Amino acid sequence: MAPTDETAQVPPHPAPADPPRPPGPPPEGAAGRPARMPRWLPRAMVLALALIAAFQLGSWAFHQLTGLLINILIAFFLALAIEPAVSWMASHGLRRGLATFLVFLCLLLLTAGFVALLGSMLAGQIIKIIEGFPEYLDSLIQWTNTTFHTELRRVDVQNNLVHSDWLRKYVQNSATGVLDVSAQVLGGLFRLLTITLFSFYFAADGPRLRRGLCSVLPPARQAEVLRAWEIAVDKTGGYLYSRGLMALISGAAHYVLLQALEIPYAPVLAVWVGLVSQFIPTIGTYLAGALPMLIAFTVDPWYALWVLGFVVVYQQFENYMLQPKLTARSVDIHPAVAFGSVIAGTALLGAVGALVAIPAIATLQAFLGAYVKRYDVTDDPRVHGHRNRRPPGGVSRGLRRLWAARRGTGPRGEA
């Protein structure tokens, strides 16, 4: 039977819409398996683990090699300090290796002579103190008996001292600590040898080291590296040479005082004061003056006060008169910046940081000064620390105007 018109015109029933997907795991694949993870995810995880392992390994290696890196830093600055002398000798026909050896030989002879003189002086003073110990003990016992009305005797004091528990413990601790002291001495000698060898190689092979460093840089960077190297040599050498000159002046001044007071070992004490006060920052002056004061006290207690007063006065003269003139050209940095750099260097590297802080900051300041554009400063009184002053009569004129305004009159009393 043929379909009617009504049946033919009825549209087909629409297909039902898919229900919304509930939250949960992602849909499975065509074969019923879960979707595969991105291909980059395993590689990223392996790369992250490798970076963490490399960082941990680098941190461990850096902490293990800290001592060696500090020795290399000291050797580098020492090589920069002797670079002008080595270059001058090399320019006059000597081989660079031989010139470096001669400079180190002179430094070694000077250091050995100073240590030998200082050791002989200390040994003589120790022997003198031991020989005069009974006399010092008798005077102390007599003063104690007179002051406190006691009846002490030298024999009783010596017996109590020999048989005391603290002396026995001190001897035992000293005996057990001999190995530690020996290990520290051997470690110090090995460290000194390491610094000497590295500084010798840096100074002798300086041109080769610069060529090797510049060979991996483009020409524009090569000029900047060579300029920074030259500035570092000038500042470090100038700093050490100016310190050496001030040490010579300080030693000569203290030698005159010690010789006038007839203090024994005056030349050695003068050299000690000059070197320690100049090459140990911040506390070098106090360490340098302690030994001459101690030796002067054994001669006469009043001489120790004379030495103390001279050290204080000379330190002020050096800080405000001598040092600014000698270091103005070699290390042109503000005293506050120098003091802050010494504190920062001490906090980072200890005594080594205190020694290399000032030449390092001077080098950085001079290098950055070439790239910082400067302008002329306006002629303003506030630049010189003066405040702007009002014209004469400004305050009184303002008061008169205020009083006239309240009275309703003009400046001249007119209505």
TrEMBL record:
GO BP: any one term: transmembrane transport
Keywords, in A-Z order: Cell membrane, Membrane, Transmembrane, Transmembrane helix, Transport
Main localization, broad class: membrane
Residue stretches of biased makeup (Pro residues): 11-28
Membrane-spanning intervals of the chain: 44-62, 68-86, 98-127, 181-203, 240-257, 269-289, 301-317, 337-364
Subcellular location: Cell membrane
Organismal lineage: Bacteria, Bacillati, Actinomycetota, Actinomycetes, Kitasatosporales
GO cellular component: plasma membrane
Protein name as catalogued: AI-2E family transporter
Membrane topology type: Multi-pass membrane protein
InterPro entries found in the cross-reference section: AI-2E-like
Region Disordered, residue ranges: 1-34
Family membership: Belongs to the autoinducer-2 exporter (AI-2E) (TC 2.A.86) family.
